[in-house]
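Usage example:
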Amino acid sequence: MYRFQLGTSVISLRHLECEVRVGTMKNSEVAKVFQDIADLLEIKGESPFKVRAYQRGARSIEQLPVQLEQLLKQGQLKEIPGVGDAIAKKITELLTTGRLEYYEKLRSEFPEGLLTLLDIPGVGPKTAYRLSTEVGVRSPEELEKAIVEGRVAGLFRLGDKTVENILRHLQALRTKEQRIPLGVALPLAEEMMESLQQRVEVHDLVAAGSLRRFKDTVGDIDLMCTSADAGAVIEAFSALPQVAEVLARGGTKASVITDRGIQVDLRVVDEESFGSLLQHFTGSKQHNVALRERAHRAGLKLSEYGITDVLSGGMEKFAREEDFYLRLGLQPIPPELREDMGEVERAEQGRIPELLGPGDVKGDLHVHTNWSDGNASVEDMARAAAARGYQYIAVTDHSKGRGIANGLNEARLREQVSEIRALDQRLQQITVLAGMEVDIRADGSLDMPDDVLEELDVVVAAVHSAMGQDEDRMTRRVLRAMHSRHVDIIAHPTCRLLREREPVALDMEAVFRTAVETGTALEINAMPARLDLKDSHVLRARELGVRLAIGTDAHAVGHLEYMRFGVGTARRGWCDPGDVVNTMSLEAISAWLKRRGS
DNA sequence: GCCGTTTTCGGCCCGACTGTTTTCAGTCG
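Running the assembly step on the lines above writes:
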């Protein structure tokens, strides 16, 4: 067992301690080592290109949809973009010995805790190094103390204002929300945009940034608009009821903190360059870098203002984002794909898939009612689903193992099924399918006998207990459930809850392969706190040919709205309508649900 | 350190802001 001697700051997320066991090093842990190496090399003043190479490698590994172990076994490490001889060799050393000599040596050249300082906004490599060597601080907490004690201000190039700024950021770090779940950020952004539109004349108004890309969590909210009267917009924005504090306010840009501690930036931009600005501020940063690198080779220079021909010096502006991509010889790329995951190359070849859209969804296959822990009746849920234009909805209340959720036993389930059948007869607009979200017990057996499941139209199975099982047991447990001929869908496969619960230990490759083999669909649970499968899992599952089901897990009528988060996640995983079972018509899905003869 | 419809060597993304300067270093997105 080897323990990396990293900082222990409570503020730092990126530099938390991590334990590493030989042979089980996770991709994220390996990625972190390379990110640290990049940071240290930067501090050391190494070539920025070398630094960037390590950063790129780290990011590639972080986003890798498969385990490094597997690529190592197959001798495919160098297939990873940004991984060449040197990094491949270092990955091999890390995976086989659990340590990396180069890394340890590099770390030993610097004071302990140096890297934790990099997490403070306004503190980069140069400042961090000087603070750590000249002032001797080893953590954000120590830095704050040093500043208050006046041991920092006055150092060369660290004037009062700089130090004041650092202190402000340090204090903000303690109180500021870290990453905000999409499910919180998106409604807030929409609420603010709506109020803004009521108060003042705005033309285009959109949310850019990671929100537009439907990332599961976002750092802040970026709004962009065009208007004939920028000043009035900025003023109205700063005065919105959600605003608690105005951080900065200029002629065309304002930054505020809302009452919930979330930073929102608004930019008012010219209509004629709205397209390229929107493109720029939608990101991701890495996507934009990839675009610029490519443009550079073609003698073009990209910026938020437009595309410049390097030879002639002339700049073209773009009112529409689409035209920006077309000018680069690229198919327009949907925001959800802009993560530098090969989308630029695909766009070049005209092979960006026709992604699944909200309108493709024909029904919801995971919904609760007041029979278990939902708060609406079967009929209310069904009518609300019909109002959304769905062809079908599956009622999937909990099974008896979820006592706390008022789970249904055999008798109550039968009673509910007859209510559903009767309702289905009455309702013209929508078909109500009888289902259940059945517990997968610790040993992988189901919490409901086969002869009862046999009578249902849809069976969704999920883990809700014994989540601490090791990977081997948990994987065997889930695979066993998938082999049941009654189970159609595995719900929220990793059981993660954003900011609350880590995913369970599960061999996802094995789950994906078994899903293909048994024809079981895996759910993209659309609850914003779950989004499980997450985007990178969806990407990998899809690549292997897994069928997916987007379910809202609605416990109230309003929760049916969550579907859009599930669709966004599916889009981030490059899904087209054919990848998702609940885009099928009623007739087709009925046939699919009967595929195993149940 | 990586990588190739200019290259196996010589390149490698762009602009703005801030504070501290008197021409620019450092940081950020």
